[in-house]
Each structure stands twice: as structure tokens, then as C-alpha cells.
Specification:
It is built from four helices and seven strands. The chain has about 160 residues and is of the alpha+beta class.
């Protein structure tokens, strides 16, 4: 045999093997009815950051976050885009991790890793307002901030008074 017929024989063998890979044709498979109903609104995360020494409401597109993760965004600070708009945070990273619980009557308790008395008043306001925004059904938005044996509150968000 010469090189030409050998190549053709090898190519034909490869084509035969490739064609017989085991995938068989089939009819369309029904997956049920298409989705229906109202479209869910996009999720948003509401935070209270600082601009010119005052609280500023910031709404970010987002995913469903736990209250602790939402409060951690305060300590993480503004996004680069928010920084260009002059936004900052007074909540230091060492204030986390955070937790939030609801007590009877809708009172919220936010627990920090640091004593609230060591934080600037504006940082406490950021935490209180962000926590109250997480639970809008809470009557009067009463929030107590606790940490390392100290507490601050109960307080309402100054923007809600």
C-alpha cells in the first residue's frame, strides 16, 4: 500500500468511529408549561452611608443578604462609584462581625464585636438606620446596639423621626 490509500483508509475508519459515538436522534422532550406570573422586582440593599457629615441613604442592586451580611457592607465602606459621589462610612471594619435579632414586640438588637461606646455617634446611626431598613415592619424602628458588654439604645433612625 502507498501512503495515499493508507491515509484514506485511516480517515474512513476515524469517520466511522466518530459517527458511531452513541448519540442517537430523538424527538423533542417536553419540559412542561413555560413560566408565568408576575416578574419579581429586582432586589435592593438599602444602606446608610455618610456624606458631608450626615446620613445618606444608598440603594444598591443586590441579592437577598442576611442582616449580618448587609450590616457588614457598612464596615466594608462605599463602592468606588459611591466614593466618587463623596460617600464614606464611620463604621470601622473591626466592628464586625455583626448579628441582628428581633425581640418580642419587634424590637431589634444588633450585636457588634466592639463596644458601641467606642464608635462615633454617626456610626451608631448608620447601624441603627440600616437595621431598621432591613425590618420595615418593625413598629417605630427601635434598635439597640450591643457589644462587649455595652449597649446603646433603644434608638430610632434619626431620618425616621
Amino acid at each position: 500500500m502507498t501512503a495515499g490509500p493508507t491515509r484514506r483508509l485511516l480517515a474512513a475508519a476515524l469517520l466511522t468511529l466518530a459517527a458511531g459515538c452513541g448519540v442517537q436522534p430523538s424527538d423533542a422532550i417536553s419540559a412542561g408549561d413555560p413560566p408565568s406570573g408576575p416578574i419579581a422586582p429586582p432586589l435592593k440593599v438599602t444602606l446608610y452611608l455618610v456624606k458631608n457629615g450626615r446620613l445618606s441613604t444608598v440603594t444598591r442592586p443586590g441579592y437577598r443578604l442576611s442582616p449580618a451580611d448587609t450590616l457588614a457592607l457598612l464596615a466594608a465602606g462605599p463602592t468606588p462609584r459611591e466614593r466618587t459621589r463623596g460617600l464614606t462610612t464611620d463604621v470601622p471594619p473591626e466592628a464586625g462581625p455583626f448579628s441582628m435579632t428581633a425581640e418580642p414586640g419587634g424590637h431589634l438588637v444588633v450585636t457588634l464585636s466592639t463596644p458601641p461606646g467606642q464608635l462615633p455617634a454617626l456610626a451608631i446611626d448608620q447601624i441603627v438606620c440600616t437595621a431598621a431598613a432591613l425590618a420595615p415592619e418593625t413598629p417605630a424602628g427601635q434598635v439597640t446596639v450591643v457589644g462587649a458588654g455595652q449597649d446603646s439604645g433603644p434608638r430610632s433612625c434619626p431620618r425616621q423621626r
